[in-house]
# Entry
Amino acid sequence: MINVLGKENSILNKFIAELRDVNIQNDSMRFRRNLERIGEIFAYEISKTLTYGQQQIKTPLGELNILLPDNNLVVASIMRAGLPLHQGFLNYFDKAENAFISAFRKYHKDGNFSIQFGYLSSPSIENKTLILSDPMLASGSSMVLAYKNLIGKGIPKHTHIVSIIASKEGIEFLRKNISKEKITLWVGAVDDELTAKAYIVPGLGDAGDLAYGAKE
# Structure
């Protein structure tokens, strides 16, 4: 299942527009904050899909039964661009466990690159609800690599894969390389073009650099 939240008119489109806008991207604090706010919007939408159970709470004046989510959640993000988005999820899912993955492009002398896996820190995700996020879904290779390493920690009950901007190619790569069962893809927008160097067009550039500064 694929949910493209940007198809509906909402404040989400304003935040995505600011991420893309070259005149606003200079403000790295605002860029990170917009990533965080978008994470909160995705968290709210995903919360509608969780399972809920009745719990009794006591107020100063009485007691009442209320439906509350009872899922065991693990929020996983691909560093480094995924960190502000991750915080947005934690702002709403404050009791979730956390996982972090390092995956990066290793460039070769011929100009091509391969996706390298560097690091994984994760609790068991066995029979839990996994939220795996990265701001950009370009070729899809990083997301597939992250997912395949995460399931070494157990098979989740359901997986929500989240990207703010995705390419059509990246979505198709996920479909071919990750089992469709028990997986939902959430994106803010889908862009048509992916360059030979796997950059999304119109996209927004390098989210990690815009959030935290250029790297060598």
